[in-house]
Protein: RNA 2',3'-cyclic phosphodiesterase
Amino acid sequence: MRLFYAIFLPEEVRRPLAEAQGQVARYRGWKGVAPHQLHLTLLFLGERPEGDLEDLLALGHRLGRLFPTFPARIRGTGYFPNEGTPRVWFAKAEGEGFAPLAEALRQGVAELLGEEALLAGGDKPFKPHITLARRKAPAPRVPPVVFGLEWPVAEFALVRSELRPKGPIYTLLEKFPLRG
Ligand code: 2AM
Structure:
């Protein structure tokens, strides 16, 4: 199973992000993420055996009890990579709770499944972002979009991703509420 831990977004945050996606829709090279799938990845695990699920679910619940709900903001957009040809157009997320939770998941996964379970996500530093569109063919950059969005992050999830020709299908396997 292809798995990742992520934070999904409430409707009032998804709506303005989906509106901004209209900016790239007119450039055929950009493929927008379906609005109901907009999310912030905390840790990408890649392909894992089904036998790992029990540990991954227990870790999610344990960290959920440990980490408090926190406010998050989205103010603008950016590109990965920033130099050269961009592959991803994202909304930048800010919030004090993202990095500690992502780091605790990394540590927990390393302890439970071994360090090699962390290799799937690559060695790039964690940058909280919500991918809005991926570049599939040559297409221009779009001007930055400014947002004034704020919402309380009250849960995260373990998600299954199934890759299909039309795009991935995400299934939320379990949600982990954060401490109130
Ligand atoms: P992205 O949005 O920046 O592409 C499911 O694929 C989620 O895991 C996506 O949000 C993706 O981030 C993230 N992810 C992180 N590392 C990944 C990798 N090496 N391969 C695929 N997805 C990865």
